[in-house]
Design goal:
10 helices; TIM Barrel; binds S-adenosylmethionine; twelve-stranded mixed β-sheet; binds iron/sulfur cluster; alpha/beta
Length: about 325
């Protein structure tokens, strides 16, 4: 690769991109009501789904442009039979320092050993309730017990940075805050309470279930007067711990706050589109280049073009439209 392509990816508003989220499938084994309809159709067809070799090429080119962090997501990434191999390939690239994935955990019992062998650094585990019936209602699948057992396995695993993703919804799971906070007592995890976002085939967004981060904070303060503030990362806007707890609690105000000024990521969809902004609907298509033996430089140029198109403020950019499902781009 030429030296010209080795400089970092910086957009028009001087933000550096060093993080890529790759959706390795848009298929899912759950049907979370805030994410997809029961009839959700896969975005990628067998033909358009990125192959392992193509994902490895994408990671190689992005690493040469200064990307150091890769997260595999979906859909449900553990549905990919080669997910551990993908993690291993990412770890082989010395420029990539952190490899993580975001999962609903349902298949973790059969994939965790291989992921550990492959060197996975971080796992975000999504679980919105600790009640079997509610889990069935939220995900439309009766899989609570298996998921919960897998969570316990993960919590017992050392050397993986674990985050629990909990989308808090009014009168659905908002009464479970303290049950989730209990996990932070003995485990050095980050518990992330996330705001619902309007990417849900318009199903529950309009039903009054939205709970703002401010409201979540009020509920937390009411339960825990001794909450101690930590300095959060860009998206973990509010970060806390409790005396004697090993883990931390973060609030992710994804809807009510705007993180655009600190945005350092791009996303790749399972059918090979570069999405430079969460709110960008179309993206730029990598497949024609990947499937015509185009040079790495041609891929570099497309990534640069995508990053140049990153809007200053995606949420309020007129050219962007609301998505129907987060599973299209992996959250
Ligand atoms: N299937 C995996 C999982 O659930 O972890 C990875 C993909 S999922 C799209 C990634 C994250 O997005 C999950 O934590 C999920 O809860 C979150 N998510 C999906 N739709 C959402 C919505 N409408 N609002 C807020 N978070 C959402
Ligand atoms: Fe599947 Fe994750 Fe969407 Fe739930 S949030 S339906 S587990 S992709």
């Amino acid at each position: 690769m030429s030296t010209a392509s080795r400089s970092s990816l910086v957009d028009t508003f001087h933000r550096s991109v060093d993080y890529v989220r790759i959706a390795v499938t848009s298929q899912c084994n759950l049907r979370c009501s805030y994410c997809m309809s029961e009839a959700h159709e896969e975005r990628a067809t067998a033909l358009s789904l990125l192959s392992k070799v193509e994902i490895v090429t994408i990671m190689k080119v992005l690493a040469s442009l200064g990307v150091t962090k890769v997260r595999f997501t979906g859909g449900e990434p553990l549905l990919r039979k080669d997910i551990a191999e993908l993690v291993g390939e990412a770890k082989k690239n010395s420029a990539i320092t952190t490899v993580g994935l975001t999962t609903n955990g349902l298949l973790l019992d059969r994939t965790l050993p291989a992921l550990i062998d492959a060197g996975i650094d971080a796992i975000n585990f999504s679980i919105d309730t600790l009640d079997r019936q509610k889990y069935h209602t939220i995900t439309r699948r009766d899989e609570y017990h298996r998921v919960r057992e897998n969570l316990d396995k993960l919590l017992d695993t050392e050397h993986i940075a674990v985050k629990l993703n909990v989308v808090l919804m009014r009168d659905i799971n908002s009464d479970e805050i303290s049950r989730f906070v209990d996990f932070t007592r003995d485990h050095a995890i980050t518990l992330r309470f996330m705001e619902l976002q309007p990417f849900d085939d318009n199903q529950i967004w309009r039903t009054g279930r939205f709970l703002s981060a401010d409201k979540i904070q009020e509920l937390l303060n009411a339960h825990y007067p001794d909450l101690q503030t930590l300095t959060g990362s860009a998206t973990e806007y509010f970060s806390y711990t409790l005396p004697g707890h090993k883990g931390s609690i973060a609030l992710i105000p994804a809807f009510t706050r705007n993180f655009c000024s600190k945005c350092n990521k791009i996303r790749i969809t399972s059918d090979g589109k570069i999405i430079s902004c969460l709110y960008d609907k179309k993206g730029l298509d990598l497949l024609p280049l990947l499937r015509s033996n185009a040079s790495d430089q041609a891929l570099v140029n497309l990534f640069r073009k995508a990053v140049e198109q990153k809007p200053e403020d995606g949420k309020h950019s007129a050219r962007n439209a609301v998505r129907t499902s987060m599973s299209e781009i992996g959250g």
